[in-house]
Every structure is written in structure tokens, then in C-alpha cells.
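wait is this the right file?? whatever heres the structure
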């Protein structure tokens, strides 16, 4: 992208150019700038690659492209380029490198020239760019590009310079060592000194001090050429021998003829790390979404902040007060990280928020404050989208005690799970629906197994067609909603979907072009046949005998047949079934629940067609 720039230097000729590449190879792609410098020793000789590199924006997920490069009189390279991302509008930036820098690297930080204030309104990006060198000093780069202001393409000129304006200008660019870790009372100090100026320098005074005291002065002999850098290790070491201490090291040059002092000095904090110090720094999985299950792997990242290798240490997760501790075999070295997946999975099957924390429990851990990481994981329902603005979808949903009049929901999805109705198993209930467009197929599911996946055997209204061959209008119809015997009792999600002109997809999460989805709650209860005559004047009595033992009795002069007693948990699962004979007009059954788990249970006494229901609580 952009033309090559050619320049003649004493002893060689140079040409630099670039193009855009995909830097990560993923399906999402990330644009970066692939650049080259070609050289030839003499006119007419073959060209060879002198250096090459790939420049990627330091900001994660940001594309860099439309590079424009030129070289100044000292051999420094300046490059202007364009960036954008999903969160950042189009921007113009620059980077560059000094001639003496390691080959193939752009060492100048990404620097903003101008940021768009609006997005590109067309399907073509502003791609006219150019960079040139100011002939007045052979140092200043002039870059022009297009960006967007108030929805208009706008030219912006960026002016920057890498070479110094001074003949004599040196400074410390980095404190290379020491670094965070295990330190000592006699720690070597190494710095990098850079010559920003045009003149070569020798016998450069260099200094360092620790925590503002005990200044060490020495001499870097050189010579250090223009645009060149050199490492220097002081012969006098630093006393950094107290564990757990952070030391502030300052290094600087003191060249007597230095014309620009602002770049002479640099400071760095160095920490004498504890031997034993680890912690959980991230929880990788699971992540919030609508497909979480009761069997989710939990993976965390553990980092070693200390200097000692760690093996066979404990890591714990706490999921809503369910605490699981396992052992990480390691080894985990200083500054390294490891991802650990617990063998014990976590239950995220219910919709809502889960507080998940994870922490290490290393004996003698020096810093407990970096042990723990907390996240909130949210299980949500899928919210399929559809267009209901033309009248497709639900304008009335009437079932039992639910009587919900609505308009078109945003994006075709309405969450009405605060509305609940009681429905009996082994029963048929009338569902009344109003829509404002014909040819609407209606499907209803009830999530009986509470796995938040609406399955084929959970369909209670199967593609009922309303107002066939009709267009716009108001259409109200009543359809049967059937609940089979043996389904789980209790509260369950209920999903209703409408789709125009074709059956509702089997996948309840699939969006459609026209239609609507609404979610409600259904409370499934046992069918008790209360209206049936044989039990109309009969009541079941549950007597508590202590120690979670109960006596169930029912007196009847109307029935004499053998009855069936059933015990269910709140999910509707049958735990006990026995026959109960009539003895002089009384039905009596002793129920021992002393070994049962605490909780609520449901007792039903009757025949397959009718009976009485009571709730008991086991402590």
C-alpha cells in the first residue's frame, strides 16, 4: 500500500515499502503492516532484503493498514498509518524507528495524529495517504491522510520528527537490570544510553541512585555514534537485599555539552519478590451465556508472583457457597502462569447470576491480597429475534390466570416470566391468542426438566395455524394446551413462539424473519380430580408423629375400593407407591420419612382418576 520510497546514501541505495497482511490467521482477521527495506551496494547491483518486519498496533483488536513510509537523512524511518476497530473510529497514527535500532522493529510508540468523530458513511474507506520528508532539515516527516469529521471525508496533516535537532544530545533510555525477582545486597545495574544528537560522543558521564540516595557516578567510554545505543553495566553494585521491598532506581547522563536535558533521565521500580507467593489471576471458564449447564468445567489461571517454584499446591473455587478444593501438580515457576481445570464441575443450569470465586491456599504465602479472583457468571435465556412490527406475533396471550395484552416486543422478544399460571398434569387447558396478522403458526413449550433447552417432548402446543390465508387484521383464536401425565411438578419456563407463513422452527432459540417470542412461567401441579363426586365430601388428614414420621388417614362412606398412595418430591418424581385398603370406612397409612432428605414432599391418595393431595415438610 502506497508507493515505495527510494533514497541514496554513501555506500548503498535504499528502498522501503509496505503492504497489509492478516496477522493472526483467524476467521476474524487482524490487519497489520508488513514492511521491508531493500538495499543495493552500487547502482545497477541486485537488490537484497536488508530488513523486514510486521507492525501490529499495540492496542488489542485494532487494525493497522494504509502505511506510508519514508527515511530521513540519518536513516531513521517514519511511518504514518490508519487504524480502526469495533470500538474505535478510524484514526491516523505514526510510528518509526532509529537507524541504529534492532533490525525489523518499529520502536517508536504508536502516536495519535487525529481521531475521527464519525464513522465512514460509505463502503469505501478513505485510503489516500502520503508521507514526505521536509527538504529544509531532512528530518521532519509530513504525513497526509483522510479521516471523518461530521460524516465528511476530511484531510488531516500530521507533522512529526524522530531525529534530534541538536548536535549534542544523549540520555538513558532504559534500566535493563535489575528486574523484579530475587535480588541481593550487591546487585549489578545495567542501563542503555542513546545518542539522540548528530555528533558522536565519548566519555559520557552516567549515574544511578537508589531511593534518591547514594549516587554512583561512572563514565561510558564510547564512542557512541549518532542514532546509536549502548548498554553499560556499572562497576559499583546496588544494595537491594531486603525481601518484600520495592526500590526506586533512577539513572541519567550528565554530558556537559548536552543541549536537551529532558531526555537524560529515566526511573524504574524494582521489587524484591517473596519466595512463596501465588494467586488466582483469572477465571477463564465458564462465561456468561444462555447455554450453561449443570456440568460446566471451571478453569482458572494461577500465577506465581514469588521466586520459588511451586508444586502440588491447593486451589479452590467457591460457587455460591459450594466450596471445592483440588491440587495443582505444577511445577509453576517465577512469573509463569498455568491454566487449571477442576475435575469437579459446577452447576450453572438455573437462570440468574452466580458468584464464582477462586483462590490459592499456599502455606506461608507472603501476600494474601493477590490470592483471589471473583467473577459473576450470568445464565440467561436465548432471546430469538424476529420482526413483529407488521402485526405478527402476540397481542393477547391468555392462559389460566395469565391475561397479557401487549404490543410488538423490541426485536421480537418479550420477557414476561414474572407472570405465572397453575396448570395440572394430565390435563388440557384453553390458550387464547390474538395476533394482528394471518397465517401465524403458534408453538408453545414448557421446560419440564428445567435444563433451559426446549425439547420435542416439551411441546404443549404444536404449530397451531391461526387465520390461514389471511393478511392484516385482528384475529383471536382458542387452542388446546395439553400437558401429559408424569411431567415434573413445580415452576417451569414456558415459551410461546409465533411465526408467519411457515411452521415455527424446532429450535426454540432460532430467530425468524416475522413473528415473536414470549416467555412466561407455568406451575405444574398434580391432577386431583376435586370435582369428582366420590371425593367431593372427603378429606385426607396428615398427622405428624415426630421424628419425621406421619400418619395419613381418610374416612369415607362413599368409596370402598382399594386406593393408591403416592409420595413425590417437588420435581414430580415418584418415590413411594403402595396400596391402601378400606378398613371399616377408614384408609390409614403410616409413612416413615426419618431417613429422607430434608425438604418438601407431596402425598396423593386416590385412584388414577381422582384423589386428594397434601404437602408435608421433612426437617
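ok assuming it is, sequence goes like this
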Amino acid at each position: 500500500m502506497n508507493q515505495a520510497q527510494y533514497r541514496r546514501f554513501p555506500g548503498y541505495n535504499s528502498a522501503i515499502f509496505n503492504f497489509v497482511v492478516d496477522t493472526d490467521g483467524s476467521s476474524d482477521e487482524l490487519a497489520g503492516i508488513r514492511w521491508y527495506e531493500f538495499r543495493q551496494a552500487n547502482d545497477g547491483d541486485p537488490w537484497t532484503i536488508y530488513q523486514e518486519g510486521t507492525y501490529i498496533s499495540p492496542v488489542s483488536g485494532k487494525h493497522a493498514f494504509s502505511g506510508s513510509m519514508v527515511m530521513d537523512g540519518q536513516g531513521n524511518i517514519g511511518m504514518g498509518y490508519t487504524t480502526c476497530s469495533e470500538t474505535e473510529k478510524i484514526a491516523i497514527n505514526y510510528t518509526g524507528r532509529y537507524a541504529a535500532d534492532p533490525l525489523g522493529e518499529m520502536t517508536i510508540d504508536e502516536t495519535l495524529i487525529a481521531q475521527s468523530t464519525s464513522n465512514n458513511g460509505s463502503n469505501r474507506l478513505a485510503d489516500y495517504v502520503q508521507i514526505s520528508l521536509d527538504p529544509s532539515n531532512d528530518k521532519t516527516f509530513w504525513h497526509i491522510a483522510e479521516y471523518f469529521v461530521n460524516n465528511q471525508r476530511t484531510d488531516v496533516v500530521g507533522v512529526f520528527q524522530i531525529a534530534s535537532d541538536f548536535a549534542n544530545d544523549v540520555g538513558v533510555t532504559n534500566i535493563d537490570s535489575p528486574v523484579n525477582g530475587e535480588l541481593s545486597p550487591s546487585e549489578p545495574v545495567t542501563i542503555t544510553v542513546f545518542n539522540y544528537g548528530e555528533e558522536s560522543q565519548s566519555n559520557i558521564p552516567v549515574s544511578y541512585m537508589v531511593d534518591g540516595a547514594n549516587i554512583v557516578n561512572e563514565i561510558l567510554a564510547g564512542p557512541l555514534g549518532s542514532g546509536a545505543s549502548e548498554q553499560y553495566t556499572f562497576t559499583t553494585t546496588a544494595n537491594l537485599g531486603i525481601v518484600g521491598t520495592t526500590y526506586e532506581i533512577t539513572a541519567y547522563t550528565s554530558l556537559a555539552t548536552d543541549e536537551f536535558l529532558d531526555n537524560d533521565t529515566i526511573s524504574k521500580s524494582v521489587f524484591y519478590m517473596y519466595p512463596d507467593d501465588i494467586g488466582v489471576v483469572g477465571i477463564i471458564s465458564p462465561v456468561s451465556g444462555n447455554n450453561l449447564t449443570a456440568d460446566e468445567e471451571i478453569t482458572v489461571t494461577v500465577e506465581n508472583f514469588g521466586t520459588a517454584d511451586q508444586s502440588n499446591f491447593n486451589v479452590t473455587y467457591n460457587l455460591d457457597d459450594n466450596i471445592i478444593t483440588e491440587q495443582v501438580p505444577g511445577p509453576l515457576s517465577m512469573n509463569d502462569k498455568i491454566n487449571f481445570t477442576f475435575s469437579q464441575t459446577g452447576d450453572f443450569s438455573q437462570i440468574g447470576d452466580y458468584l464464582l470465586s477462586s483462590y490459592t491456599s499456599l502455606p506461608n504465602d507472603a501476600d494474601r491480597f493477590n490470592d483471589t479472583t471473583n467473577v459473576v457468571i450470568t445464565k440467561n435465556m436465548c432471546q430469538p429475534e424476529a420482526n413483529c412490527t407488521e402485526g405478527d406475533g402476540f397481542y393477547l396471550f391468555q392462559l389460566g390466570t395469565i391475561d397479557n395484552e401487549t404490543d410488538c416486543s423490541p426485536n421480537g422478544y418479550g420477557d414476561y416470566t414474572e407472570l405465572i399460571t397453575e396448570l395440572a398434569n394430565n390435563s388440557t387447558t384453553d390458550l387464547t391468542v390474538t395476533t394482528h396478522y394471518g397465517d401465524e403458526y403458534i408453538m408453545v413449550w414448557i421446560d419440564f426438566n428445567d435444563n433451559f433447552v426446549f425439547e420435542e417432548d416439551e411441546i404443549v402446543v404444536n404449530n397451531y395455524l391461526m387465520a390461514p390465508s389471511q393478511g392484516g387484521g385482528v384475529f383471536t383464536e382458542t387452542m388446546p394446551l395439553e400437558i401429559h401425565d408424569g411431567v415434573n411438578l413445580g415452576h417451569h419456563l414456558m415459551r410461546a413462539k409465533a411465526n408467519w407463513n411457515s411452521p415455527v422452527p424446532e429450535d426454540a432459540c432460532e430467530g425468524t424473519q416475522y413473528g415473536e417470542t414470549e416467555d412466561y412461567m407455568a406451575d405444574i401441579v398434580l391432577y386431583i380430580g376435586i370435582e369428582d363426586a366420590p371425593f367431593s365430601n372427603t378429606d385426607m388428614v396428615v398427622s405428624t408423629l415426630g421424628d419425621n414420621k406421619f400418619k395419613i388417614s381418610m374416612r369415607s362412606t362413599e368409596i370402598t375400593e382399594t386406593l393408591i398412595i403416592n409420595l413425590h418430591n417437588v420435581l414430580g418424581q415418584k418415590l413411594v407407591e403402595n396400596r391402601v385398603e378400606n378398613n371399616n370406612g377408614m384408609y390409614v397409612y403410616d409413612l416413615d420419612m426419618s431417613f429422607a432428605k430434608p425438604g418438601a414432599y407431596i402425598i396423593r391418595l386416590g385412584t388414577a382418576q381422582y384423589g386428594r393431595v397434601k404437602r408435608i415438610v421433612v426437617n
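DSSP finds no helices and 41 strands in the chain. so i think its the right one actually
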